[in-house]
Write a structure and sequence with these properties.
There is one protein chain. This protein is 81% helix and 0% strand. With 247 residues, the chain is mainly α. It contains ten helices and no strands. The two termini are 23 Å apart. Helix 3 crosses helix 9 and helix 8 runs antiparallel to helix 10. InterPro entries: MetI-like, MetI-like_sf. It is found in: Cell membrane. Keywords: Cell membrane, Membrane, Transmembrane, Transmembrane helix, Transport.
Amino acid sequence: MRAFTRGLLGIAGFLMLWELLGRSPLIPAHALPPPSVVFGEFVTQLTSPDFIRHVVATVLAVLIAIVIAVAIAVPSGLVLGSVPAVRHATRAIIEFLRPIPSVALIPLALVMLGFGPETKITLAVYAALWPILFNTIYALDELDPLLVDTARVFGTGRAGVLFRVALPSALPFVLTGIRLAATTALIVMVSVELMAGSQVGLGYFIMEARSGPGRMDQVLVGTVVAGAIGVLLNNGLERVRRRWVAW
């Protein structure tokens, strides 16, 4: 409760400073609308079906990207973490691909996949893979050999050790990787919607708001909503981690 109160005080202080700057003569009103104006526009947008559609499209695409990334990264991490030969054989390729930013692949993705939702989901999956993959691999490095030896003494095969011993032990690391991947996927999703000419999503809403005469209040509404989605994803996955793997 004390930490929650301090968090509220920090938010209140930030909003107060923003309000003062937004109404200061030093900054043009159209460049930085105060939070009172942004909140009023946010309430107005909540009644707009188009805005709700943009928010739902982004959230749904992020969730799909996370599910696909988990389905690819967790089994791959288990294999790479438990089979040294495969890990060494693929290390150079993985280390080459990992630093490539997803936004740098936008032109290639547009040529291959077009301007549909497949492009932003694919790039978000690419960005979300790495935190989950490497957390799974590192978790297997921390696996107690005594657990593996005990399972083998009782006749458990390689697949059984992998899914009945290694995966439960790696679960805290995997959930941490998923939490990091969720916010990364959200960042990439909004960036691709903003840069790749998507027809729906928060990024597209922000891009439309800044075009023409420019509506900075709407731009900030989209930005704040994207940040709020990131906070909800992070806190929700943290609660899942505490509930499922409190040990």
